[in-house]
């Protein structure tokens, strides 16, 4: 698996992000935009919670019978004139795509948005094979110009502001007149559209991801708001769908239920502007469509997840609601996580795909506040799964020495409840006394990670346990 670009330096990345004022301003949009829109869309649909249960059950059922649904899906795609390629690893998947491109003599590939292509580092593989990949989703196009990775799985450039994007366009679009006004977002969009139209027309192969694959019909489904996915898959003579095996759902009816929770959870829309179904290559009576249709099904560690305690993570439909509601993501953004998948879903998925030794730091980047689980449309117990990864990290001796020592000290006291209560009471009392004048601490020994960027509130004088007991006695 292509894990060589993984960065274990979460602390350093987070530190840099917290001291980047432009990034901090841009991250404000995550909180103000996504959360309210999701809530209002969910509130307007009385059956939203029931749909979440149903979405969870559909995915659980599919995962329990994944082998059968994969076979059924393959049979339907083949019957429709398409080809299914199974790719056990990232390298297998990139080799399959590169081979198809080579065989049809492709020079340019138009790509719709696909997190799987990020996971397998497809663009680098295509370039190495002499094929030019062009991202056609606006956000992906911008990060391709910048040579970056997406910082969010739905809004790849959430970390950038308008000025930065204008500067990128002026740097790369050599035909852009300097006097042209790009101050409005619409003008940036028009500029990108103009540049991309030529690429769509020139592309020999179109690559899209898939939000869902339907076993009943052999259909792949993508949701977009820009229509670029449709152009990527209908204009070129070859269409390649790149998807991971857990994207399957049994029937079109199941897919329609999943779509109802996906759009609301992701962007607060009832449905995305384009929801596109494609089944096989162009038929004789079709007015458009590709001559060849391929589906590359990526495993890359997912079969192993099926048999283990992280299986529930395979229910994920990549809506990004968990990161939109995560206080850690709000503070540091997606790039701090160091690999393709950020936020709580990445904190569980990345160690599963690339190993706890490379990504064990991610499950530690959580306050365990539980907001991620409370909004996940397929009810993945993300905090529980992160805790499992923390346990694995500890068992394998991968936790840093200060963490292990801290846990050993805590364990010593926790096994002696009386001593624990005495020590915590004494500590709370001392901190309360020391901080009573200001009501907060700007610096504290052993708490630099906290006090570097915010104050630590002085305790009120008693521990949680003492207050709880007092309240119980009073009742
Ligand atoms: S874990 Fe849940 S909330 Fe997060 S992206 Fe996946 S489906 Fe959405």
TrEMBL record:
One GO MF term on file is: 4 iron, 4 sulfur cluster binding
**Domain (4Fe-4S ferredoxin-type) ranges:** 306-337
A single Pfam family it belongs to is: Fer4_8
UniProt entry keywords in alphabetical sequence? 4Fe-4S, Electron transport, Iron, Iron-sulfur, Metal-binding, Repeat, Transport
- GO BP annotations listed: lactate metabolic process
Q: What is this protein called?
A: Iron-sulfur cluster-binding protein
Protein species of origin: Hansschlegelia plantiphila
């Amino acid at each position: 698996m292509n894990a060589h670009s993984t960065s274990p330096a979460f602390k350093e990345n987070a530190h840099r992000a917290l001291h980047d004022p432009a990034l901090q301003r841009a991250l404000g949009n995550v909180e103000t935009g996504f959360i309210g829109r999701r809530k209002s869309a969910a509130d307007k649909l009385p059956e939203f919670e029931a749909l979440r249960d149903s979405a969870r059950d559909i995915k659980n059922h599919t995962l329990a019978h994944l082998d059968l649904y994969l076979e059924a899906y393959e049979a339907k795609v083949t019957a429709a004139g398409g080809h299914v390629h199974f790719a056990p690893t990232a390298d297998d998947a990139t080799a399959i795509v590169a081979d198809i491109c080579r065989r049809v003599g492709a020079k340019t590939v138009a790509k719709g948005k696909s997190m799987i292509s990020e996971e397998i580092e497809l663009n680098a593989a295509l370039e190495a094979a002499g094929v030019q990949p062009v991202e056609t989703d606006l956000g992906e196009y911008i990060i391709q110009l910048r040579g970056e990775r997406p910082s969010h799985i739905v809004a790849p450039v959430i970390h950038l502001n308008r000025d930065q994007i204008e500067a990128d366009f002026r740097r790369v679009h050599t035909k852009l007149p300097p006097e042209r006004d790009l101050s409005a977002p619409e003008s940036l969009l028009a500029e990108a559209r103009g540049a991309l139209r030529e690429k769509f027309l020139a592309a020999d192969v179109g690559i899209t991801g898939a939000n869902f694959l339907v076993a009943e019909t052999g259909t792949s489904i993508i949701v977009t708001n820009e229509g670029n996915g449709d152009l990527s898959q209908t204009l070129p003579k070859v269409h390649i769908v790149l998807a991971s095996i857990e994207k399957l759902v049994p029937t079109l009816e199941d897919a329609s239920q999943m779509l109802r929770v996906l759009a609301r959870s992701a962007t607060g829309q009832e449905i995305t502007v384009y929801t596109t179904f494609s089944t096989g290559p162009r038929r004789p009576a079709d007015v458009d469509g590709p001559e060849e249709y391929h589906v590359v099904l990526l495993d890359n560690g997912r079969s192993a997840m099926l048999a283990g305690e992280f299986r529930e993570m395979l229910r994920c439909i990549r809506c990004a609601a968990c990161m939109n509601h995560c206080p850690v993501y709000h503070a540091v953004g997606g790039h701090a996580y160091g690999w393709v998948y950020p936020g709580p879903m990445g904190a569980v998925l990345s160690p599963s795909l690339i190993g706890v030794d490379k990504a064990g730091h991610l499950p530690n980047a959580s306050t365990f506040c539980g907001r991620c689980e409370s909004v996940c449309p397929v009810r993945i117990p993300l905090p529980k799964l992160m805790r499992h990864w923390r346990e694995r990290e500890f068992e394998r001796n991968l936790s840093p020495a200060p963490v292990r020592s801290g846990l050993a000290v805590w364990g010593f006291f926790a096994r002696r409840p009386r001593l624990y209560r005495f020590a915590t009471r004494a500590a709370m009392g001392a901190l309360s006394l020391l901080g009573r004048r200001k009501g907060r601490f700007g610096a504290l020994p052993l708490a630099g990670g906290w006090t570097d960027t915010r104050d630590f509130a002085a305790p009120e004088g008693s521990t949680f346990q003492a207050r709880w007991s007092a309240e119980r006695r009073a009742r």
